[in-house]
Amino acid sequence: IFFDRSYFMGPTVGNEKTYLLLKEALDRTNKLGLIHITIRKKQHLAIIRSFQEGLILQTLHYPDEIRNIKNMPDLPNNEEHPIHKQELTTAINLIHHLTTPFEPEEYVDEYKEALTDFIEEKIEQQEKNETIYPNPNIINIIETLNASIEQVKQQKGKKKEGINEKKAT
């Protein structure tokens, strides 16, 4: 609950050996480093730990940023709702039978996939010069403006002809 964001850390140029030394020392001692870091003008509490082939920095929430679960209304308790030993044993057995290793690559963000599919479909349709949402009432504004200009020119031409005819008489 204390963890906020994770950032991969890489060495700066010339500090590759120091980076590897810290990573290896954290690995062998099974420890992590607790630090204060400033990100975007805000101080954060964070840890640095070994992660796979490198180091990862994880910002933490300060304790006062985390709500206390005791402040949550209407939490049930054992006195009001006693749990019997057989019920607990059955629930634990069910959990053991349903437990499998966590494989994050088996899970996908379905919303992201649907959005990506929609965007790709939209791009594909635009490439085919098709309209995604056809509207039969679409007006070509250039044609409309040119027609209006021609109409105004014709009306001005008729007025000039009328003026010239009056002068001639």
TrEMBL record:
GO biological process: double-strand break repair via nonhomologous end joining
Domain spans labelled Ku: 2-89
Transmembrane segments: none
InterPro entries documented for this protein: DNA_bd_Ku70/Ku80, Prok_Ku, SPOC-like_C_dom_sf
Lineage top rank: taxon: Bacteria
GO molecular function, one term: double-stranded DNA binding
Keyword ATP-binding: no
Keywords of this entry: DNA-binding
SUPFAM superfamilies hit by this protein: SPOC domain-like
Protein name stated in the entry: Ku protein
Native source organism of the sequence: Bacillus mycoides
